[in-house]
Design a protein that fits this description.
- The structure is a single chain.
- 23% of the residues are buried.
- α1 packs antiparallel against α2.
- It contains 6 helices and 9 strands; from the N terminus they run ββββββααααβββαα.
- The chain has a 3-stranded antiparallel beta sheet with strand order 1-2-3, sandwiched between helices. The protein has a two-stranded antiparallel ribbon with strand order 4-5. Strands 6-9 form a two-stranded antiparallel sheet.
- It has a single domain, classed as Vitamin B12-dependent methionine synthase, activation domain (Cobalamin-dependent Methionine Synthase, domain 1, Roll).
- By secondary structure, the protein is an alpha+beta fold.
- 33% of the residues lie in helices and 15% in strands.
Amino acid sequence: NTVNDDDIEIYTDDSRTQVAFTWYGMRQQTVKPVIDGVARPNQCLSDFIASKESGIADYIGLFAVTGGLGIEKHEQRFLAAHDDYNAIMLKSLADRLAEAFAEYLHERVRKDLWGYVPDEQLSKEALIKEEYRGIRPAPGYPACPDHTVKADMFKLLQAEEIGMTLTDSFAMTPGAAVSGFYFAHPASRYFSVDKIGADQLADMAQRRGLTKEYLERWLAPNLS
């Protein structure tokens, strides 16, 4: 559930008595246009999760998948043989497999695991255009540019059990990997946080119990 407007508490189980971790959100701060007399809202992904105060037991999903386990030795073998073409093709194939797995797993969530659209029947073209209900934003992308949340995600998912780890810079290994969150709200959509002000940075540092300098390092591209 959403707390403090911008943050999402993720619980250990349905009793909702213990917080596994809190995902600290970033909200748009750029001036939005007024359309038909209505100002466009400054969005945060937490807007798509019910607030704790509402009493509604809402849900969010996490995932981490890879298609690159064990490819390094084969990539090095191709490079040692000066076969750049097959080395590139191998990496590309692993990347596509990871993306396809993420797409397939999201479909399972929608139709089966959460089952909020059990009768969904989409063409490949519609899937590519993401013409389905729900989104799966990934850390580091415009809607959630903060990479550091991956540490909590990977710990909760026990990603190391399938051979996935994080570097000191929060890059995923193997490189052919995808991780993110599942949102099912019918109004959920992708957007870009873009630039945030010093006030939001200071507020986030206080909420997270971190220094502004630490956050400045990881959120530099989004600081105005």
